[in-house]
Each structure stands twice: as C-alpha cells, then as structure tokens.
Design goal:
By secondary structure, the protein is of the alpha+beta class. The chain has helices at 7-20, 99-102, 110-122, and strands at 27-31, 41-47, 58-64, 75-78. A 4-stranded antiparallel β-sheet has the order 1-2-3-4.
Length: 138
C-alpha cells in the first residue's frame, strides 16, 4: 500500500497525467473549470473502441471527486447517452454494477475508471448492444 497523500496533491497529480493524455489517446480527463481550486468537477472523454457499436463515437462524462476522494470513489455520469448494463437511465454509472467503483480502493484513479468503462464497451456482451442515436445527451 502506498503512502496516503493529501486529496489535493493526489488530484493535482491526476490532473497532470490527464492533461498529458492516456495511452493511445482513447480516454482523457481534466478539470471542468480551470479555476476550480477544490479540484472537484472534472470532464472525461472516451472514444468508443473499434469493432463495436461504439466505434468512432465520442462519449462525454462528468466526474465529481467529493471531499472524501480518493478514500471514496468519484461519481461518474455520462453526458452522452449510452446503453450499458452499468449505466442508469440518468447516465450515472452504477457502482454496484461496475467493479472499479464498486470495489474502490485508495490507489484507484480517474484513468482506471475511464479505461475500465471503455473496456466495458468492448466486452463481448456489450459491444453489440443497441445504442441511442449518436450525439444524443441526457
């Protein structure tokens, strides 16, 4: 287990990583408002995985890191409509159906959440699910 880092230091580190981009660029994240001194409200973007109904779609998400983050998971809400078993009708990711949030650990981070959601899109049971019209929002 790593040393406990104060919330804002942890989030500043995540912000720096998010601004550099994740891996192949299929997921990204950053602050909704650059003046947000509390580092609470974030945007996330996922480019749908290839060879799925999500291919070439861009999904926007709203991520909220509450005062207890990273001890407690962030709240993650899709702004772009999507049909996935772990997403409620209002776009919120259901922690009880999404392992990364449901089994949250201190060392988890925003990058892992976005990458895991993208992997969920590519899962064999989900990659052909009918989707709402492209570009529709909650």
């Amino acid at each position: 287990m790593s040393a406990k880092v104060p919330r804002n230091f942890r989030l500043l580190d995540e912000l720096e990583k998010g601004e550099k981009g994740i891996g192949d660029g299929s997921c990204s994240y950053g602050l909704r408002d650059g003046d947000d001194d509390t580092l609470t409200d974030w945007n996330g973007t996922i480019i749908g995985p290839g060879h799925t109904v999500h291919e070439n779609r861009i999904y926007s998400l709203k991520i909220t890191c509450g005062p207890d983050y990273p001890n407690r998971p962030p709240t993650v809400v899709f702004e772009t409509r999507i049909n996935l078993p772990c997403v409620k009708e209002n776009g919120e990711v259901d922690a009880s159906k999404f392992g990364v949030l449901g089994r949250w650990q201190y060392d988890n981070n925003l990058e892992q959440v976005l990458v895991a959601l993208r992997n969920e899109m590519a899962h064999p049971l989900n990659k052909k699910l009918p989707q709402p019209p492209e570009g529709s929002t909650y």
